[in-house]
Amino acid sequence: MTEMASLPVFLVVDEDKSTVDTLVSDLERRFAADYRVVAATSPPTALDLLGALRDAGEQVALIISRESMQAMSGSELLGRSRSTHPDAKRILLVEYGDPQMLDRIAQGMAAGDVEHYLTKPWRSRERLLYPVVGQALAAWARHQSPGFQMIRIVGDRWHPSSYRLRDAMDRNSIPYGFYDRESPEGAELLGQLEEVPDHPVVFAADGRVLTDYTAADIAEAVGARIHPPHQAYDLVVVGAGPAGLSAAMYGASEGLSTLVLERWAMGGQAGTSARIRNFLGFPAGISGDELAERAFQQARMFGAEFVWVNGAAALAGHGEELVVTLADGERVTAGAVVLATGVTYRRLDTPGVADLVGAGVFYGSAVSEAPGLKDQDIFIVGAGNAAGQAAIYFAKSARSVALLVRGDTLAESMSDYLIKEIESIAKVHVRLHTDVAAARGDHRLTELVLHERRIGQEEVVPAAALFVMIGATPHTDWLPDSISRDRHGFILTGRNLPGGDSPGNRPPPLPLETSLPGVFAAGDVRSGSVKRVASAVGEGSVTIPQVHLHLQRQAIRSAG
Ligand SMILES: Cc1cc2nc3c(=O)[nH]c(=O)nc-3n(C[C@H](O)[C@H](O)[C@H](O)COP(=O)(O)OP(=O)(O)OC[C@H]3O[C@@H](n4cnc5c(N)ncnc54)[C@H](O)[C@@H]3O)c2cc1C
What proportion of the chain, given as a percentage, has pLDDT over 70? Predict the structure, then answer.
């Protein structure tokens, strides 16, 4: 294979030859040194070409396809390309002024087939074409094997602990290589060992081989900080999801000495989202890990210090001082603490579901998907108020909405006013005694197998989206009883605290302050919070003026 042929490929598809020629020439002008730009003037030719590139083992970095084509729409072509080149980034080319344009983009994004879009004509290459292509390429490059590998992991690709390690490396932006134990590289590395364990083995860049290890050992092997550099801080933030990163960035930027403790990976739940589409300022969305990495860099630039895989295990108030004990027993003191420990969504352990997350299957209500699901059949699993509200919301534009409920009534878990409203909407059907037995679809969700629990009957139904809303568990079990929580374990703050307005002789709690003075809560872990990235970021930032006020009051008390 020539050097030219081994460069990753950009594929451009349009039935209009002049557009193809312009696009190829504009892309080559900027990217020819690193990528090979190839073109197809019909969707069937494009699919054949993609098959041939896959068979030849060539990488496709980017596919740009026009939406309006006669043989097949661009979104369909991009969707089908996922089976041959799942890692390629997909850009839909739409005509400026096309009244259907926004619908087409939204539908493609909701299905997970389209990641970016371009409008034609792109008169200014610098402003309209190159930034979109550059953003797509940056996202693609983040998930390719890096040249330098800080660690090499050898394991069984499908072993859950292999997945967990890869997830942690990806989300913490650590350059690593993963080798299946059956691959030549994997077998060669394992050949150095006298005894090969069942779980993955980690080969560090400095020559150390870790066969029996903790998360902290691996963090140390990749040079991550696992011990706090100081013993006392103005502010300790627990959790490096969107709320914690925001509190850290604003705290550090406003002069507070700030420590962030994260027990697993930066970005929290948001870091697991392939595309966050409803965060202000990112019209084509941004991947959760990229957003987290940007926020982390920003917080670090302002001086926030981070400790990884050594999370908070205990918290206590001693007079004016707060003491946080880390998982390894170390202690740090803080003038104020922000709890941003988030939640874990209960997962639907059903065949097919895990593979289709983001491609028709969503955790939480993801209302931003509604425009892309216009006139489609939507299913919601859950019987709580959030599921009811989502059903009402989606019914405005969907063809049908089915609420799938395991039990025999909604009355135990949903407010009466919501039940009445749902009953009044003809498009919403409540299916009691019903489970999802399987989710199916080649590259996106197309059908569900529903199981009627009383009679044991299964039914296959067409489905464009499945929203799983079966609850979330807050990470609060490590907190002391002095931090009041609601009956589901979420942290109560401000006026929601019992006696919130007049708690004895202390000043009323600040809006995001918990029942332990100086301890604040932000993001999903807070009772009553809106479970979104933007809200978590907002709450994280809002804690900081309250932290300042608390520290000022503390200083006055100490002086007096
Ligand atoms: C798959 C998926 C897709 C989503 N997509 C969207 C979307 O498109 N748009 C949107 O607005 N929202 C989306 N959400 C919701 C959004 O991600 C959350 O609302 C948001 O991440 C909440 O941020 P947070 O910082 O409060 O908590 P989290 O993101 O949960 O972060 C909490 C962090 O705290 C850490 N932690 C927990 N306990 C401890 C401890 N004791 N010590 C140290 N660290 C600890 C955790 O490891 C985690 O990193 C999505 C959620 C999921 C799961």
Answer: 96
| C-alpha distance from residue 43 to each of 47, 81, 254, 445 (Å) | 6, 10, 54, 22
238 lines ligand 1 (CB under 6 A): yes
- Enter the DSSP assignment of 347: P
Selection from 533, 366, 337 nearest residue 466 by Cα: 366
Higher pLDDT, 492 or 415: 492
Q: Which tokens belong to 318?
A: 């001693």
Distance in Å, CA 342 to ligand 1 centroid: 5
Ligand 1: distance of its center to the CA of 269 in Å?
3
18-51 pLDDT, tens digit per residue, is 999 999 999 999 999 999 999 999 999 999 999 9
Alpha carbon of 343 to ligand 1 centroid (Å): 6
β-sheet with 9-13: strand ranges across: 36-40, 9-13, 60-66, 89-95, 116-120
Kindly write down the DSSP assignment for every residue of 304-326, as one continuous string: -EEEES--EEEEEEETTEEEEEE
Beta-sheet strands, E only, within 173-302:
176-180, 201-204, 209-210, 232-238, 258-262
CA of 267 to the centre of ligand 1 (A): 7
478 lines ligand 1 (CB under 6 A): yes
Q: Are 136 and 152 in contact (CB under 8 A)?
A: no
Decide: residue 397, CB within 10 A, 0-12 exposed, 13-18 middle, 19+ buried.
Answer: middle
Q: Are 360 and 380 in contact (CB under 8 A)?
A: no
Separation CA 355–CA 352 (nearest Å) = 6
**Three-class SS of residue 56?**
coil
Q: Is the pTM value of this prediction over 0.70? A: yes
Render pLDDT for 126-149 as a digit per residue (tens, 0 to 9).
988 999 999 899 888 877 755 678
Residue 513 is given by DSSP the state: B
Contact 334, 235 (CB under 8 A): yes
Encode burial over 221-255: b for 16+ CB neighbours within 10 A, e otherwise. Answer: bbebebebeeeebbbbbbbbbbbbbbbbbbbbbee
Cα separation, 86 vs 256, in Å, equals 44
- State the first-to-last Cα distance of the chain, in angstroms, to the nearest integer: 79
Which residue in 493, 460, 459 sits closest to 476, CA to CA?
493
277 close to ligand 1 (CB < 6 Angstrom): yes
pLDDT band (50, 70, 90) for residue 1: very low
- For residues 88 and 81, the answer to whether their CB atoms sit within 8 Å is yes
